[in-house]
Design brief:
The complex is a heterodimer of chains A (625) and B (90). Chain A has 625 residues and is α/β, with parallel strands linked by helices. Chain A has helices at 23-31, 75-84, 106-116, 130-135, 142-149, 164-172, 190-204, 213-221, 226-244, 246-267, 272-289, 292-308, 310-323, 332-337, 342-347, 355-364, 374-384, 396-421, 443-477, 489-499, 501-513, 520-528, 535-543, 545-551, 555-562, 565-577, 582-592, 595-623; strands at 10-17, 35-37, 48-54, 57-63, 96-102, 123-128, 139-140, 153-155, 205-206, 389-390, 394-395, 432-434. Chain A has a seven-stranded mixed sheet with strand order 2-3-4-1-5-6-8, with helices on both faces. In chain A, strands 7-9 form a two-stranded antiparallel sheet. Chain A has a two-stranded antiparallel ribbon with strand order 10-11. In chain A, 48% of the residues are buried. Chain B has helices at residues 28-37, 70-73, and strands at 8-9, 18-24, 44-50, 56-61, 64-69, 76-80. The relative contact order of chain B is 0.31. Classes of the chains: A alpha/beta (625), B alpha+beta (90). Chain A binds chain B through residues 68-69, 71, 73, 104-105, 107-108, 111, 190-191, 194, 198-199, 202, 207, 210-211, 214-215, 218, 222-224, 227-228, 231, 312, 315-321, 323, 329, 428, 430-436, and chain B through 27, 29-30, 32-38, 40-43, 48-56, 58, 62-69, 71-72, 88, 90. Strand 12 (432-434) of chain A pairs antiparallel with strand 5 of chain B, so a sheet runs across the interface.
Amino acid sequence: MLTAAPERSSHTIALVGLPNSGKSTVFNALTGFRQRTANYPGVTIAPFVGWVHRDGHSVAFVDLPGIYSLSPKSEDEHLAVRFLRGELPDAPTPDRLLVIVDGTQLERGLVLLSWVAPLHLPTALVITMIDELKARGGVLDVEELERRLGIPVFTVVGRRGIGIEEIRRSALAWEPWGIPFLPLPPDASVEERYQWARELSAAVLHFPRPDTRSERIDQVALHPVWGLILFAMVMMLFFQAIFTLAQPGMEALEAGIGWLQQMVENTLPEGILRNFLSHGILGGVGAVVVFLPQIALLYFLLTLLEDSGYFARAAFVVDRFLGSFGLQGRAFFPLLGGFACAIPAILSTRVIPSWQERLTTMLIIPLMTCSARLPVYTLLITATIPPVSVGGVISAQALVMMGLYLLGAGTGLIIAWLLRHTLLRGAKAPFILELPPYRLPAWRTVLGRTWSSTWAFIHTAGTIILALSIVLWALTEIPPVSVPPGTPPLEAQRLQLENSLAGQIGHLLQPLFAPLGFDWKITVAILGSFAAREVFISFLGQLYAIDVEAAEGTLRHVLAQTLPIPVALSLLTFYVYALQCISTMAVLRRESGSWRWVALALGYTFALAYCLSFLVYQAARWLLG
Amino acid sequence: MGQTEIEVPLNRAPLRRQLVVRRYEGESSVIERLCELGLTIGTQLLIRRRAPLGGGIEVEFRGVRVGLRLREAAVLYVTACGDSNAYRSS
């Protein structure tokens, strides 16, 4: 006789909590590194999902962005609420809820529970920060809380993984969890909810001493003088770390790809296959992986700052400054991230609640000098700007480099102001930001989040960059140019590039760029930059290969002799402004929901690039005679 | 205790004094978010400090700290709370 076996299939458990409730730490402890961002069609934001399997039963834990209630204000909160209500197309409907509550803020956590209780889902409560609660003299009566709520209550120390196994076991065994029964009408007012939460909290928790550590730190961190100095120092360190710490990794990866290319060149016979593998595929992969150390580092530092509690302070400090350009404090880190790479930066604007402010931030991020521009800047500056010092203190080269960064950032802020007073006009959005207690970051969470965000970058941007690199490679190989036998290989390479589709397009468009001082070689190289900016260098390398060999020098030497300073300055200006990154456009399309905004970004950056390069070129020619 | 009767918007309230939320007046979405955060009527709060560059204040209530712009603070009307020991007690 057949008996109904207990259901052994897959279930979805959503993690719900206030921002900074320790939710992500619990999620990471539960799922380890078995997590990915899940892209649901039509959803711009991907929640993190981690699967846990045991005895044929699997549970997908979904880490939702923090919410305060079921009335969302930001894009992040919208996603969480739509997921909870089962309104996301093609996303699973949550079967159960894990409500994560910071034990030192029990009252507010219970209010959140009261908002999600009407969803009528089996729920368990997870009280985090139990160690901190105890250290502050708090005593929690867990049994009483379970009895009053009618649902299981787990206590954990997320960062040390204490108590996590109990939750995992209960979830995997599909132990019955109750549906919370609260003595509150579904339409209870916020006051009634807080009243109920306060009474319940008072009944089960012997209240701990207040958190004095955060106040002591804030006396410095938010001090009118020391606070600003600390802020400047943190930003400088952040900036410095992204560039210097990532450097060895980037160089190693570049060398590795170069070695692989060499292997292919050495082992395969000359021909289209060898060329495709070496330049098309490996070149494309190289363009993606070379940025991974920096992007991983960027995510690592952002998560670290966020988890420690300083992130919110920094946003609070700069809010006034950014507010005067029609932005808000939360835009600060996305903009700073833009100096590494626009793609993760655009994704990180999701924390900005106002749509106008978020879109404005996304639209100006491409003006922050990303690291893909750096090799181009370095090459052009060292080749053409004389290594003299200005006033005996700072070198002219460093001055130009700094000027380029400031030019991009400054123009970005002006554009933000203009957008907020024209196309994206709208009342100043409210700025209300919780300043969480300072806490030591949980390494597991930081590493887990870094890994899954970096993976998301490889997944989204990586595939686009790779595909484009292959298209670009094809454009340089089609049509195949036949050269007379005996032509030196470098000359053959140059002829191929010059007469390929890419070369032809470059020749065709050159008159458009002539007023900026660009010849056809530069024009071809600029077009190549649309796949990835550093392609500029490899294109110039191919176009000047003969000259480089003849001069027995490097590309830099050749450029130093052949590139006039006005052209170099005009070219640098062009690179400051032009949005030459199709991956950024694709991400902008996804996040803004419309090609219209991509067209606007492309249009305004090109107009700026063209007009200002023209002015710089003409002015420099006139000044330098 | 005549001082306790005076109702002022939070952006004009004194620093580091126990205050009580009396009423709201202004944009409903701002009011909604402030309430959700726990700044319901009758809640006791304290302005810890002004933002280092100005333009905002840090308030503390129910053991939470929140930074807000003066414009948002203006929707909250508060009075001074006579008994500073009342803070955090229920």
